[in-house]
Amino acid sequence: MALNIGIVGTGWFSKVHGDILAETAGVRVAATCGTSMEKANSLAARYPGARGFDRLTAMLDTVPLDAVYLCIPPMAHEEMETELIARSIPFLVEKPLGVDLERPMQILEQLRHKPVITSVGYHFRYKQSVAQLKQLLQGRTIGMAMGAWMGSMPGVGWWRKQEGSGGQFIEQTTHLVDLLRYTAGEVEEVYAAYGSRIVHEQHDGVTVSDVGTVTLKLSSGAVANISNTCVLPGGVAQVGLSLYTERGILAWNPDLLESREDGVTTAYSGNDNPYIAETAAFLHALRTGDTSQIRSDYADAVRTQAVTCAALASSITGQPVRVDYVGIN
Ligand SMILES: NC(=O)c1ccc[n+]([C@@H]2O[C@H](COP(=O)([O-])OP(=O)(O)OC[C@H]3O[C@@H](n4cnc5c(N)ncnc54)[C@H](O)[C@@H]3O)[C@@H](O)[C@H]2O)c1
Fold first, then answer.
1. Nearest CA to ligand 1 atom 27
2. Segment 312-329 mean pLDDT
């Protein structure tokens, strides 16, 4: 029997996930939910037989769903996960889990009482180059890491507001924090310096910082720096994470993994689509109950959220902040 999937959110990323689902055998995008019937119906029209709704509860009351994809801005999560957990409906939720740590912690607690299958959209974990990177790290000791997400300001309005997105480090650079955790282990303490240099003078109503640098201490004893900016003009970007070991440099970016070790440079390129692998792992879990292929579930993603939120706190107080895992473990 086909799996029936609902999608909440009608923006760019709902289409990315929806199109992958629609092209997958044995899967149907059966319902869409947006902030208006017009937007929901417009997305539903992409998928044969899908129905549009303007409220999550109406969608869940009307269409029997095997799972829901939540592709909504960080500030919009509200009661959605709670509603899905109450109805025992599995969900794949896009990162970040929210604009703060408080709401994700409540949801984590609800999941403990009533577990459902979850997956979180940290898609880099599904890149073949990241599997390769993890393999290359076997037997090496990471001394330190440096990451950067240097880009331009996304066009959507919610991204520019602190209360809408949580800021670049929570909203976007979270991918690199998650990749650091995935490859180098847990983060214990952060110190962050953020600033507003350019973007608030170019656009009205910008309340997020546009530059930031975060020093991270890891449980292993390794140290890292992850910096970000959104001041660059469109079309210029630099995104990646480099790991430094006793053997050399492992430099990863979304298109290429390069190992510079023992005087030899080896490049591992890959044009695999990690979103397809991410969805395949989630669908496998829905069909079989085997969640072992899901590389980021809700509980794990809360730990990444704890690091990015600690960085925001540090940027405000000007002091180093220990990452608070109390209640997560
Ligand atoms: N993993 C990735 O590579 C990746 C890439 C892009 C976006 N994302 C994430 O996906 C999420 C959505 O991003 P996007 O680019 O699609 O944004 P978008 O602004 O294009 O779309 C967001 C949609 O959510 C809708 N929405 C807002 N509040 C809602 C609510 N309460 N109920 C239903 N719909 C609501 C908006 O109307 C809009 O249609 C964000 O969290 C973003 O970080 C992840």
1. 72
2. 94
142 lines ligand 1 (CB under 6 A): no
Q: Whose CA is nearest to atom 35 of ligand 1?
A: 9
Neighbours of 114 (CB within 10 A): 10
Cα distance between residue 324 and residue 329, in whole Å:
10
Residue 32 near residue 40, CB atoms below 8 Å: yes
Q: What pLDDT digit, counting tens, does each position of 65-100 carry?
A: 999 999 999 999 989 999 999 999 999 999 999 999
CATH architecture of 3-123+275-296: 3-Layer(aba) Sandwich (3.40)
Would you say the CATH fold of 127-270+306-322 matches that of 3-123+275-296?
no
Do β-strands 67-70 and 91-93 pair in parallel, antiparallel, or remain unpaired?
parallel
The pTM (predicted TM-score) of the whole model is 0.98
SS3 241: strand
- The residue-averaged pLDDT of 28-33 equals 98
| Residue corresponding to tokens 């980021």 | 296
Q: Give the model's pLDDT for residue 78.
A: 86
Nearest CA to ligand 1 atom 18: 11
76 in contact with ligand 1, CB cutoff 6 A? yes
Quote the distance between the C-alpha of residue 210 and its chain's center: 20
Distance CA 145, CA 202 (A): 33
Mean pLDDT of the chain, nearest integer: 97
Domain borders along the chain are: 3-123+275-296, 127-270+306-322
| 186, pLDDT greater than 90 | yes
User: What is the Cβ-side half-sphere exposure of residue 8, based on CA atoms within 13 angstroms?
Assistant: 27
CATH superfamily of 127-270+306-322: Dihydrodipicolinate Reductase; domain 2 (3.30.360.10)
For residue 97 and ligand 1, the question of a CB distance below 6 A is answered with no
Q: Is residue 161 classed as helix, strand or coil in its secondary structure?
A: coil
Is there a contact between 134 and 295 (Cβ–Cβ < 8 Å)? no
Q: Which atom of ligand 1 is nearest to the CA of 121?
A: 1
